[in-house]
Amino acid sequence: MQRLFFLKWLLQRLVWKQLWNKMAAMRADFGGLRQEVGSLRQEVGNIRQELGDGLRDMRAQIALTNTRTMNLMIRKDNMKRTTEGGLPPMPVHKVVAGSGIHKAQALLTGTGVHKRHAMDIEAHIGEVPEYPDDMQHEDILQLIVFYNEDFGIERDMDLEARRKKVRLYLL
Fold this sequence. Notes:
- By secondary structure, the chain is mostly helical.
- Helices cover 65% and strands 0% of the residues.
- The protein folds into 2 domains: 1-87; 91-170, no CATH class.
- The protein has helices at residues 2-83, 101-106, 137-147, 159-170.
- The radius of gyration is 36 Å and the shape is rod-shaped.
């Protein structure tokens, strides 16, 4: 009977030991799975970020393309307005990101305009500036800042030559 009790006890101990070892192996497997799940979450987060950035870039490119298309239509209408109707051209939409303050400041020499007149303004792609009928040097400099384009104007050009360059940009 004692021998039977001992065998029973030994069998239970072996079973428990095997169960214990299997549980330890399962815990290790779960730890590895947790790490893999964490890694997958990180990858999914990176993919989401990349997709968001790509979508934002695509939207910006579509907006820029739409703006350029509108500008082509405006320029076409401007040709008619100025040649047939004698009307001033309509301003086109901004298509170059950023400010043209440095371009405007580079053209200050020879204009009689002091640097304080070339003010930096924040304009976004697709916006349209105020366009005075009788442009002065300050107005042209502000258009340069707005559009971030120098219109082919050179430092030594007089006011009338600068006006022609701006009009050519609008046509």
